[in-house]
Write a structure and sequence with these properties.
Elements: H1 7-73, H2 81-104, H3 110-136, H4 146-155, H5 161-239, H6 254-280, H7 296-310, H8 312-361, H9 365-371, E1 375-380, E2 388-395, E3 398-406, H10 410-427, H11 434-449, E4 462-470, E5 475-481, E6 485-489, E7 492-496, E8 516-519, E9 525-529, E10 537-538, E11 543-544, H12 547-557, H13 562-577, E12 586-592
Antiparallel strand pairs: 1-12, 2-3, 3-4, 4-5, 5-8, 6-7, 6-9, 9-12, 10-11
Helix pairs in contact: 1-2, 1-5, 3-5, 5-6, 6-7, 7-8, 8-10, 10-11
Length: 593
């Protein structure tokens, strides 16, 4: 079996080469980002907290030195502030700080862990000496005992007892602080190096990919355009009745098949011309071989030759009739071809234009992350364009966003989303309270969708969840049309219920949407969504995903970073759907306060 390098193969190979080069860049970039995240975790979770803890311990140790000297030298009652602070310091604060260092030391090297172990031992000895002072001078009257005072003064002498242990502890603390600062500097330098590498990848390699893509596109295009132009030239010559001077190059793809057919047609026409010339000159013995058993023209010429031998005039009439029939058939085919081409082009242009319009109204990922740094938008249209859309806006200290599900999907749903987006922009110029936005959105949407001739208008509408967050007070306001809002706090879901009537389903003033208020706390996760995710069929039995399973999924991933949650939701959806078709547009918005 001969292999043919077809047009799909050419395009596939070119695209495959581009994908390979792009994949290499993605792999290198992904590794760089992974290393950067690892280094940032070391800085934020190990070295920076370690430096802070060591510095705090140093401060506490210096303060304890002042307090113990006060205890041993100043006669005072047992309830004075300095003595209470001393008890708290050695009883709770310093042990707590040492415990923090112990938990952080699991990622230190052996030398740093050894210094920390030595520091713990030194602090134990120092606390024993502190306790001796505190036990010997428990109250105001104990300071009158001269022997006790002499013992305490000996413990507080330079280079003796407490002073020796304090110097040892401070030295060990300085070694730990120096080591942690050195580690932090090293991690920062490594992070800077990764940043330089990432800039290199984003710059030079991106240019390389662009060049490779242009070269591949040029080669693939040239391998298709050049033979098509040769075919076009040959057909134009034939259309003018001129035989081409050269044959079309036959390649191993579909264009080569057409070239072979055209070359064969040209040869057949040449033979036909020669045969016709001989018959026309009266040579009725001339021979002619049809191109195939289905060559109607060839057999007609043979019949023409035979008939012309009996009656030239009758043959001329038959040839004229057959020629007219062929011309009419060709003209009809050309008209139908042009009509099909126009219809296909109109349909394709309409869908692509709808896609560009919808993409233009959606906020960019950068805009969303600028409003809510820890957030995601899962957006999966069922067709090229979608009836779902997401909307974000900042007004003063308030951030507003909405998850909107318009009637239908595909091109009709996409144009409904354009109507909804424009009406939202108009309403939010005046109103920021969600219930007011929905009430006036219903009014303007109904006006936009209701025709002048119809009393009831069209039945199109929107379901949505509208949310406003005061970024200073963290007060959330919400109103919904069929679409509820989920807030997850401490592994529990709080649901703000929506009103069960859609935008555009009633006249303005007949009903009003409910405005919900909720006080957010740091760490709360907010989820707004359309019904596409929960209505998807799949699983082992081909049933719907449903809201209960959706809530359980959100609870299981709520502690993860929002970008990871986005990935998990997408993976869960793909596993559930399996090989079934996506039944509706999907939109899920996640935001962490």
């Amino acid at each position: 079996m001969n292999f043919r390098f077809t047009i799909p193969w050419k395009i596939g190979v070119g695209f495959g080469m581009f994908v390979v080069v792009t994949g290499v860049l993605f792999f290198l970039t992904s590794n760089t980002l992974s290393e950067s995240r690892s280094i940032n975790r070391e800085i934020n979770e190990v070295y920076a907290p370690g430096i802070e803890a060591v510095e705090e311990l140093s401060t506490q140790l210096s303060y304890s030195e002042l307090l113990i000297r006060y205890w041993g030298t100043v006669q005072s009652r047992d309830d004075v502030l300095e003595k209470r602070n001393m008890r708290t310091l050695i009883g709770t604060e310093i042990p707590s700080q040492l415990s923090t260092l112990d938990s952080l030391s699991t990622e230190w090297n052996n030398e740093e862990q050894f210094v920390l172990d030595s520091l713990n031992t030194t602090m134990e000895r120092l606390f024993i000496l502190y306790q001796q002072v505190m036990v010997k001078l428990p109250d105001f009257e104990s300071y009158a005992d001269q022997m006790t005072r002499m013992d305490i003064e000996f413990l507080l002498l330079p280079d003796e007892g407490i002073d020796t242990e304090l110097r040892s502890a401070k030295g060990q603390i300085d070694r730990l602080l120096q080591a942690q600062r050195s580690n932090l500097l090293s991690a920062t330098q490594r992070s800077d190096a990764l940043g330089d590498r990432l800039r290199f990848l984003a710059g030079n390699i991106s240019i390389f990919i662009l060049i490779v893509g242009v070269v591949i596109a040029f080669l693939v295009s040239r391998s298709i355009v050049r033979p098509v132009n040769e075919l076009k030239r040959t057909l134009l010559y034939l259309g003018k009745g001129i035989y081409p001077r050269s044959t079309v190059e036959v390649t191993s793809d579909e264009i080569g098949q057409m070239a072979f057919a055209v070359n064969r047609l040209v040869d057949g026409l040449k033979k036909t011309r020669e045969f016709s010339a001989q018959v026309g000159s009266g040579n009725f013995e001339a021979t002619y071989t049809p191109l195939s058993e289905d060559d109607e023209l060839g057999f007609a010429l043979l019949k023409m030759r035979d008939d012309l031998a009996a009656s030239e005039r009758h043959l001329e009439r038959k040839v004229e009739e057959r020629t007219n029939e062929v011309v009419q058939q060709k003209e009809e085919i050309e008209r139908q071809k042009e009509r099909v081409t126009e219809l296909y082009k109109d349909l394709t242009d309409s869908i692509n234009y709808a896609k560009r319009l919808q993409q233009a109204i959606l906020p960019t990922k950068e805009f969303v992350l600028d409003m809510f740094p820890d957030s995601f938008v899962m957006y999966r249209p069922r067709d090229i364009v979608s009836g779902d859309f997401y909307w974000f806006k900042t007004t003063g200290k308030k951030n507003i966003f909405a998850a909107v599900d318009c009637t239908g999907h595909g091109v009709p749903g996409a144009f409904m989303s354009l109507v909804g987006h424009n009406v939202l922009n108009q309403v939010t110029k005046v109103f920021t309270r969600p219930s007011q936005i929905l009430n006036n959105l219903n009014r303007l949407a109904a006006e936009a969708l209701r025709s002048e001739e119809s009393e009831t208008g069209v039945s199109d509408g929107m379901d949505l969840a509208m949310v406003t967050i005061d970024m200073e007070s963290l007060e959330l306001e919400y109103a919904g049309a069929y679409n509820p809002l989920y807030i997850i706090r401490n592994k529990e879901i709080i649901q703000l219920k929506a009103d069960n009537f859609s935008i555009g389903s009633f006249r303005f003033g007949e009903r009003e949407y409910t405005n919900h208020k909720f006080q957010l706390e740091k760490g709360d996760a907010i989820y707004a969504f359309s019904d596409g995710y929960v209505d998807q069929f799949g699983g082992d039995r081909g049933k719907k995903f449903l809201k209960k399973r959706f809530r359980e999924t959100l609870l299981s991933i709520s502690d993860l970073p929002m970008d990871v949650q986005h990935q998990k939701l997408n993976e869960t959806f793909v596993r559930w759907k399996k090989s079934l078709d996506q039944v509706d547009d999907i939109l899920v918005i996640g935001i962490r306060v």
